[in-house]
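Lest this sound abstract, we think one record worth quoting, the chain in one-letter code, the fold tokenised, each line plainly labelled:

>
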Amino acid sequence: MADSLQGPAAAPAAVELRGLTKRFRHVVANAGVDLRVEPGTIHGVIGENGAGKSTAMKMLYGLYAPDEGQILVDGKVCSWRTPQDAIRAGIGMVHQHFMLAGPYTALDNILLGAEPSPSWAGFLPRSLRPVDRSAARARLQKLSEQYGLPVDLDAPIERLPVGIQQRIEILKLLYREARVLILDEPTAVLTPQEVIALFENLRKLKAEGKTIIIITHKLKEVMSFTEKVTVFRAGRVTGEVETAKTSPQELANLMVGRKVVLSVEVPPQPPLGPPVLELDSVALDRRHGKLDGVSLQVRAGEVVGIAGVEGNGQSELMQAILHPRDPGCRSSGKVRVLGQDVTANTTAEIKDLGVGLVPEDRHQEGLLLERPMTENFLLGLQRSPRFASGGFIRQDELEQACRNAIREYDVRPAAIDLELGRFSGGNQQKVVIAREFERKPRFLIAAQPTRGVDVGAIEFIHQRILRARTEGAGVLLVSSELDEVLALSDRILVFYDGRVAGEFKRGECTEREIGLLMGGGS
């Protein structure tokens, strides 16, 4: 009788972490993490860089084994030896840096590791079974239509924009029948239009009963698209809140443990100095990319922002500045840096003039992930008198500089001998920023400077860029974050199809006006 008076038992969580702990040598990445995600919801996971968000999710996905604690899926305790075990249990993950093989087609990438074979081939060893590509293609086309994820299955990955690559990663999970989708920084490399399309697709997946966990730093997106948010700090869960009952400021404070300034306070612009960058009719053969007669100037004491949908010439612009004598980066026009014609100069010669570079792809252009922080901090500074003497590296001075950078830039973990690949993406970015400001650049190229970093680090990086401007450096800011371009730039140049489609001074334009030019309007 007593049982009949009780209500129905609560449905089990889609996934639940209980007391999860993970250590990497002397670094505790997670300490007693508890997290519950209800089925059929979009759940946000936020926290500073190095707070343990991705580590916890990688344990849920089977990439790491927990040292302590339990993982529950649909109320049942699970233990993974490999991600394949998690996939079989319905868990899928899209990593911040996509796990795709560039030369191969979308179809090949989706099928890799889950190749279907005809029913008649069941008697053969798996390695000898033919792949039923027709059946796979038909199924993927159906999934693509069902969830609004159109993809050219025959296109090589390396020729596809990042937004399409992300669709392929999601299709890969759906093809494997994932019921819980973990997305790590899903909008870090997307344009505003692609972000809108992504979340429309995620809402469709939620309506189909899928459970979605989003690891992100972008509070605007957390507020717009999630129902609950779990906050990590220093490897622990510090709070779980309903999105409708919180605010971006409260979430930022929970993440960082202090009040964070979410709006950029821009000091008065210093008197402008001579040009630090001058481009005169710089063009690039269309076989190599988009750059069509670009002329622009950046002067000492100003931030010039480049706005535009990625793929409209921004990457080619930076290559033309840094590699002007390479015909694949510049086919005509003149480049002057800090008053010198550098059209025939090498990249090293250009940087030695006093140029700092925060590259748009830190993994490809800025870091050696398998090497320790000390070696990464030294890149480009190995000839500096501070760190080199008589052909030898001054190791004590280098290590002290790294410790100073860790303290000043709040790099976590504070381990100068740890391989940089073990740092979170945001902390890797902090190392790049610290190294480039060590050069005290007179001209700074900052490409996607806050990509994948938390709100506290964004605040700090913005302050550093503005300090460089105040101290008389010229800054070329290339960012897919339109809010960032609007907040930091004294002048904004809008790129479309390899050309400068418009120019505005601070306060002269709206986000809508820039958006129209970014899309090819007027």
In short: The radius of gyration is 25 Å.
